[in-house]
Write a structure and sequence with these properties.
By secondary structure, the protein is of the alpha/beta class. It contains 19 helices and 11 strands. The protein has a 6-stranded parallel beta sheet, sandwiched between helices. Strands 1-2-3 form a 3-stranded mixed beta sheet, with helices on one face. Strands 4-5 form a two-stranded antiparallel sheet.
């Protein structure tokens, strides 16, 4: 039996990516009893993942190696069989994550942002595996993870899924979930109220898992960066788990302290790419199931083919179709889906980098040549920053492409975006300008 299972594993290892094999296949065990073949998995997550993604392949190899009619293969969690506990091994059973968990500190975790609700595809398989590995192992060789992705691609979902899973397995773990801006604001308030020692103690001594999102927003915040770097040093030395998320690589974040850049880079960096067509179909199917939308397969296929941006765009199209069907009392069909997608797609097609440049130049009365020049004159800096911000917000262009079209490095483009976002919080004039441009771009009235 052991010899046959080793041969099967060796064959699977050649056909499955190395990280997936280590994560999902290596821990499995093969048993035969009561007239059935059984695969034993370490926990419920593993069982579901193995059955869904590798079940057919495993059963094919079983039939090839054993040379007999294998029949149905059952999958069990270690310590359970047919829903019943088996002796002292019962403690190996891991429960599925709850949807009503909140962290010990920071923002609430979204109840649907769990591993069970995350759709895995070729674009995010490694990030998913790395996140689940970090969540399930209290002592791991790589205690830090840096999730790299653009807006709406799932880095927040995976970050919060880690928090959900850890709190469900070990409720005594102190999980802190927040954005980099939350951390910065809390530190500033601690200094203002002369409670900085309490702040330091909280993060350095009372935190077991730190989930910190959007670390690129720390750009230029020297004092916060130094404090966070020292906090991370303490957490690393104590073997605590740390998860960062960002839309930029650590090396590409402008005005970042080298010590903090080093801390971000020492963990495993895992990128999430935009989903391909097959993954988009599965995302729409999952979302429709969660919301009890009854959407015909041709409509799902149409939405997946037309909405090629990010997951949020897919969700917008799906909810738009469901809402319009409900309001009009009309069936969900291709004609209705086309009427919804037409608006989403047409606006996206109309808003290009060149359209944004032209609009900004007209509003600020500057020439296109000056807008993309290397000049740093004050009357050009703000229009250029605004154009870069609008390009990032209203187009699907990568940051590198946006920077290139303005003759800037993408790190400089990120700094421009940060300047406008900062102004939106404190400068009413900037808020009015952004709102003006938003209305112009979304209405299509660019004159």
């Amino acid at each position: 039996m052991d010899k046959a299972w080793k041969e099967i594993k060796a064959s699977l290892k050649k056909r499955i990516p190395a990280h997936s094999f280590r994560m999902w296949i290596e821990p499995l065990e093969l048993h035969r009893g009561d007239g059935e073949w059984a695969i034993t998995c370490p926990n419920a997550f593993s069982r579901k993942r193995v059955q869904d993604h590798f079940g057919a392949l495993i059963e094919t190899e079983l039939r090839r190696v054993l040379g007999e009619a294998v029949g149905c293969v059952n999958y069990h969690v270690a310590g359970r069989r047919n829903g019943h506990r088996l002796g002292l091994e019962a403690h190996l059973q891991l429960p599925l994550p709850s949807e009503t968990i909140r962290p010990h500190n920071g923002r609430l975790l979204r109840k649907d942002f769990t591993f069970d609700h995350f759709v895995v595809g070729a674009n995010n398989d490694f990030a998913y595996s790395a996140s689940l590995s970090l969540a399930t192992q209290r002592e791991c060789r790589q205690p830090a993870l840096f999730l790299l992705a653009g807006t709406g691609l799932g880095k927040s979902h995976l970050s919060q899924a880690i928090g959900h899973h850890i709190l469900d397995q070990t409720p005594d773990e102190r999980v802190y979930y927040m954005t980099a801006e939350d951390f910065s604001n809390e530190m500033v308030q601690a200094y203002r109220h002369d409670s900085i020692d309490k702040f330091k103690t909280k993060y350095r001594q009372h935190c077991d898992v730190l989930l910190i999102e959007d670390v690129h927003y720390l750009s230029g915040k020297e004092r916060t960066q130094i404090e966070l770097a020292m906090t991370l040093d303490t957490l690393y030395e104590a073997g605590k788990r740390i998860i960062f998320s960002s839309s930029c690589l650590p090396s590409d974040i402008p005005k970042l302290h080298e010590k903090l850049r080093s801390r971000f880079s020492c963990g495993l960096i895992s990128a999430i790419e935009p989903p391909n067509y097959r993954t988009r179909v599965r995302i729409l199917q999952k979302k429709a199931s969660l919301h009890n939308y009854h959407v015909p397969e041709p409509v799902i296929s149409y939405l997946a083919a037309e909405l090629v941006g990010d997951v949020r765009q897919l969700e917008s199209g799906l909810s738009g179709v469901a809402a319009k069907s409900s309001l009009l009392g009309a069936p969900i069909n291709l004609a209705l889906a086309e009427s919804v997608v037409k608006h989403i797609a047409s606006q996206r097609q109309k808003i290009t980098l060149e359209v944004i440049k032209t609009l900004v130049c007209k509003y600020y009365s500057v020439s296109l040549a000056d807008l993309v020049s290397r000049s740093r004159k004050q009357n050009l800096v703000r229009p250029r920053q605004m154009a870069i911000y609008l390009s990032r917000r209203f187009t699907d262009s990568p940051l590198q492409t946006i920077g290139k079209t303005f003759n800037r490095y993408h790190a400089t483009a990120l700094h421009s975006i940060h300047c406008i976002e900062k102004g939106l919080k404190s400068d009413s004039a900037i808020r009015q300008q952004v709102e003006f441009f938003r209305q112009k771009l979304e209405s299509g009235k660019l004159n």
